[in-house]
Design goal:
Number of domains: 2
Number of helices: 18
Strand content: 5-15%
CATH architecture of the largest domain: 3-Layer(aba) Sandwich
Number of strands: 13
CATH topology of the largest domain: Rossmann fold
Helix content: 40-55%
CATH superfamily of the largest domain: Glycogen Phosphorylase B
CATH class of the largest domain: Alpha Beta
Shape: elongated
Strand order of the largest sheet: 3-2-1-4-5-6-7
Radius of gyration: 22 Å
Structural class: alpha/beta
Largest sheet: 7 strands, parallel
């Protein structure tokens, strides 16, 4: 698909790639921030609907079929085709630079191909090599020109290993600061009964399938101790909704579904049972006591994961704190009884719940003072404006 119009002298042309819905959201914010600083900039690339709405010309959309870990195997063939098409695109048109967002399984490879095609590459939301897969640091160093990291400790980790890294802040908090909580919806949820338990099984179908049944088992234990408890589940998308509907049909527990948005559910909750991932930081932003779970295959972990994972803690709040401040049951569990025991402990001991809330506030505070999108936009424009293609067009 051709890019719209030919670039005029001084108009930066940027290839951008995001393969998952969360990256599509952050990519859209980056595009808008860049256009505020440089209205003549144009973006083309692998983009979801949010990036297209922000002004990107999409040549592919991988966000509708995103996956992670071993579930991505079925997408390998398509990813190869998308990479080849992307390289043809950047060789055909005078791009000044490229930015790839998260998704290292795709973007470490794509970054190498884009750089081999002559483009300077900015990697936004660096691979979590400090947690697992540290052997990939050489690839990241060779295949990128700039790396925008979202956690304060990452700058030292990457720069000490020869990566040109800059801390920009976490884009999630830019979004959360703009998102108003509806007090009426919060009140309506809390009026249903106490305590309020939020179930967040994630936005990926395979994760929800692994995590949600266990969350329901824990919820049943809570209901036995608290018959007036209210339970709500976040339904992130239609794919996850199918998994949730199937599981709810098999349980006598009454669980209210919150489709598309879980802000008010989190704000109303006394306790959150959450799948491991970025959503744990959203829960931390609201200072809510939580228990983090993930239930991967024990066989896969024993054969592969235990040799790759290097982080002492696996959930983001604990990684950032450098200690366990929230209970985490990862990368798998064989029984939900210990999870239910910790949940009841937090519900019964308000002092412990308050202590966790205070610790979460300390963790997220340093992440909330940055304008991640604006900072990355400046990095991108600095990189683009120093590229040979851009300088040559300015001289002609």
């Amino acid at each position: 698909m051709p890019v719209p119009n030919s670039p005029e002298s001084g108009d930066p042309l940027v290839f951008i790639s995001a393969a998952e819905p969360s990256a599509d959201l952050h990519g859209a914010a980056l595009i808008r921030a860049t256009l505020r600083a440089c209205p003549s900039a144009r973006f083309v690339g692998i983009a979801g609907p949010r990036m297209a709405e922000a002004g990107c010309w999409p040549i592919h959309d991988m966000t509708r079929r995103s996956a992670m870990l071993l579930s991505a195997v079925g997408l390998i063939g398509r990813a190869v085709r998308v990479m080849r098409s992307s390289v043809r695109c950047v060789r055909r048109y005078p791009f000044d630079g490229a930015v790839v967002i998260d998704s290292p399984a795709l973007h470490l490879r794509l970054a190498g191909r884009l750089r081999a095609a002559g483009l300077p590459v900015l990697y936004y939301i660096a691979p979590q090599l400090w947690a697992w897969g540290a052997q990939r640091i050489g690839r990241l160093r060779r295949r990128t020109d700039r790396v925008a990291v979202i956690f304060p400790f990452e700058k030292e980790y990457f720069t000490s290993r020869g990566v040109n890294a800059t801390y920009v802040g976490h884009p999630l908090f830019d979004h959360l600061r703009r998102e108003a909580v509806d007090p009426q919806k919060v009140k309506a949820t809390r009026d249903g009964g106490h305590p309020v338990i939020a179930l967040l099984p994630g936005s990926r179908k395979h994760v929800a399938r692994e995590v949600f049944p266990g969350q329901l088992e824990v919820a049943r234990r809570i209901e036995q101790a608290y018959p007036s408890a209210t339970f709500g589940v976040s339904v992130a998308n239609a794919q996850v909704g199918g998994v949730i509907a199937d599981e709810l049909a098999r349980t006598p527990l009454t669980v209210t579904q919150h489709a598309g948005r879980h802000t008010e559910l989190i704000a109303a909750a006394d306790l959150v049972l959450v799948a491991s991932g970025t959503t744990t930081l959203e829960v931390a932003y609201h200072r809510k006591p939580m228990i983090v779970v993930y239930n991967a295959s024990p066989l896969v972990y024993q054969l592969l994961g235990r040799w790759l994972i290097r982080s002492r803690h696996l959930s983001l709040p604990n990684i950032l704190a450098g200690r366990e401040i929230v209970p985490e049951f990862m990368p798998y569990y064989t029984s939900t009884e210990p999870i239910a025991d910790r949940a009841l402990e937090l519900l019964q001991d308000q002092a412990k719940a308050n202590e966790m809330s205070a610790a979460l506030a300390e963790v997220v505070e340093p992440l909330m003072s940055q304008d991640a999108s604006g900072n990355v936009a400046q990095l991108l424009l600095e990189m683009v404006r120093s590229s040979d293609g851009y300088r040559n067009r300015r001289l002609t």
